[in-house]
């Protein structure tokens, strides 16, 4: 015999995890040939110092275990992140000096049973070695596998209690608890195959510390009485197992039924309390006669109205005005069919939810929306009227006064030779040009004279010349004239869009205007060109969105390092709330 002593030390916070790992180990080493026992010790003064001691029959068995796959699997249970102290990590293998101690009976008996089991692997006798009290099979031979109709490998590691009758399971457990041995006599054990049929085996029984071994042959009776007895015994064991299984199934069914009943009762109570608190009316309508079978006090409407809803294809949802508590109100009605076992509709459940508050709020919101639209239109008209008045005042007042002052200054004798007078006349002419430009920005007079198409053509030519930027204008045929205020807003949106594109560094702009059936669509884009600075449009986009909102239009915009795109759709008749969406 040899001792393998492994000493190691862990960090203080890891000691508890190591102890739990040893307590919950998979016990694979117990199956190794030559293994005789294992103990784990803690140092008395240092609880973080562990000492693992295993006993083996010889060094070859210990080395074979360390090289096996089971050893690798067993060590997968070591907690992750354990930190070892290298100064305290050591493995010693100690050989016993023969004659220095007495024999270890349990270890020798264990090895004897394993040795006998290896010789019995090919025998017809049934052999099984299993642990106590759990019944885990440590080893067995092919005879047991053939008897139970299973593979030998599938039996190893399983519980023997799953492969014997309930009565024999209890008898073996009692014998193990009493350390009963049956070396000089044989006991009958009924093993169960995959079809739950029992097979009786006359077994010798050996009980040692923590293990039990059974070794026996098929019970072959010597006379008819014994054969009949064994047949009846097997049938009785089979009936007992079937009876136990049926009792378990009945108990599970009863438990499930009680759980379902309790759940239905709780749900019914909960549903009743919820319906009592909800502002909901419920009625049951008979499908054949149309009469109200049942209804609560909150239901509104006549029988004819409720039956009409139930006659429609289900489920139906509709809003309807009803009289509620002597006052007019609104309800949301829905009808759901009730079918019998044959699938035929026998009734309809009609529910009503009070939506009077929601309907009143929607009507009030609609009124406020219409008022807001009217106010926005009024503001647009007032702003344009004010700009027109300022434009007229500048052109007809300030501009003309400045022009006359320039003429009179030029008529002063000697003004052509006077440098100061010549500079003053030049400043007055520049002032007149600026005044006309400001007046044009307030209200482009060319818009009144040439219409939207002509005004846009005139403005794009002037902007190209002043800013040095390429602007292409595409006006769809049939644009025609539109309301003056509408044309002014379209003009301003195009003006702001081109200015915004120019501020982002674009050298080119493509403007298109198209009149649809009930709207006008404006598109301004830069087209594909070299990289642009990736910045979000700011002030100009806000101005465009504000004008679009005032007219109830839709604004779509997007940009990247290669292109900029702005699209506005303005309704010509009905206005609606603005929607702004980025599509780039």
Give a concise summary:
This protein has 584 residues and is α+β, with helices and mostly antiparallel strands.
Describe this structure in words.
The chain has 584 residues and is an alpha+beta fold. The protein folds into 5 domains: 2-95, Alpha-Beta Plaits (2-Layer Sandwich); 105-220, PAS domain (Beta-Lactamase), CATH 3.30.450.20; 282-353, PAS domain (Beta-Lactamase, 2-Layer Sandwich); 355-443; 452-582, 2-Layer Sandwich (Heat Shock Protein 90). The protein contains 14 helices and 20 strands. The strands form 4 sheets. Strands 15-16-17-19-18-20 form a 6-stranded mixed beta sheet, with helices on one face. It has a 5-stranded antiparallel beta sheet with strand order 6-5-9-8-7, sandwiched between helices. The chain has a 5-stranded antiparallel beta sheet with strand order 11-10-14-13-12, with helices on both faces. 18% of the residues are buried. The model is unreliable at 102-113 and 574-584 (pLDDT under 50).
